[in-house]
Amino acid sequence: MKKYLLSSLRLTLILLVLLCVIYPLFIAAVAKMAPGGGDGVTVSYKGRIVGYENIAQAFKSDKYFQSRPSAVGYNAAGSGASNKGPTNPDYLKSVEAAVDTFMVHNPGVNKADIPAEMVTASGSGLDPDLSPAGAKIQIKRIANLRHISEQDIMKLVDENTEGPLFGMFGPSKVNVLKLNIALDEITKG
Description:
By secondary structure, this protein is mainly α. The protein has helices at about 1-35, 90-105, 130-135, 140-145, 150-160, 175-185; strands at about 40-45, 50, 130, 160, 175. The strands form two sheets. Strands 3-5-4 form a three-stranded antiparallel β-sheet.
């Protein structure tokens, strides 16, 4: 028994040093080499930091492209998704409420044409990107409110669409914050 106890204590100490000291220091060093130095990549507009590239935020005005709904109220301190499955009655009610809200702000859109991402939260609740379809379905509303042509906004969406990583990994995406900044630039806010 003494033999097992000593080897267990040694293994515990080795793992404590490895997992509580060496591994966190290694991860911190790798993060310092990442864009933003591990603090996140900020997005600036007119000399002011307006957000982070990889964290969604709510846009209240209909003059802007709207982000995906957030299960955490766009609070980056507590990212997470709903644990409700697609057949859960509460989840179905929240999706239906999101569809109704989307329809109020985007009249004339057919319910069947609404991309799922516009009425469901992402896994983190903080996805900063939309698919090009999620951005394009909002063009008519924005063009009407800003009094600019739909073609100009379509061009803006196309210019701000990033293709898949290395041309083959993942979908095309549009960063909502950057798209809204570009929108303000062409319409002068």
